[in-house]
Amino acid sequence: MSGDRAPAGRAELEAEREHLAYAVDCLRRSRTELLEMAERAMRTSDDEMVIWLLRRAQQIAEDDGLPLFFGRVELDDPAVGIVYIGRRHVGDPARDGEIVVTDWRTPLAASFYRASRADPMGVLRKRRFGFAEDSTLTSFDDEPVREADGD
């Protein structure tokens, strides 16, 4: 972020921190829902379902405090727009699981790794994030892949 863009860069960094906080909140709400579902499943004696739900809730708990995403792609498809790439899928339980962070192993996330100026794969820009040891989002670095139509 250059000196003349510093105020805009700070505003963007704050917006990214807000998205991270939103993703963390979604993940915690998902864990709460899993635990509630496990409690209901215990009443029906569905042991396999209880074990699966508790295992998923434990996996989420293990991620608590870790950065949920490390990059994002800005796509030229307005229906998709911006996709955050992270270590796990995070959906918003209040919005029918609307995707907040895409798992790095999905085909959609592949564009984060493979898109280039020679083969943009529908990507306008890639962004990588930097984090402090306490998982505070501290910086980002943009890599333009191609210009948007009309720019």
Structure, explained:
- There is one protein chain.
- By secondary structure, the chain is of the alpha+beta class.
- The protein has one domain (3-144).
- 39% of the residues lie in helices and 24% in strands.
- It has three helices and six strands; from the N terminus they run ααββββαββ.
- It has helices at residues 6-43, 47-62, 110-114, and strands spanning 71-75, 82-86, 90-92, 98-103, 123-131, 137-144.
- It has a six-stranded mixed β-sheet with strand order 3-4-2-1-5-6, with helices on one face.
- The protein is elongated.
- It starts with 5 loop residues before the first helix and ends in a 7-residue tail after the last strand.
- Residues 1-5 have low confidence and may be disordered.
Please, how many helices? 3
The separation of the N and C termini measures 21 Å
What's the main sheet like?
A: 6 strands, mixed
Classify the helix fraction into a percent range.
25-40%
As laid out across the biggest beta sheet, the strand order is 3-4-2-1-5-6
H/E element string? Answer: HHEEEEHEE
Shape: elongated
- Poorly predicted runs are 1-5
- Number of domain modules: 1
Mean pLDDT: 86
Based on secondary structure, the structural category is alpha+beta
Strand percentage lies at: 15-25%
Number of strands: 6
Radius of gyration: 18 Å
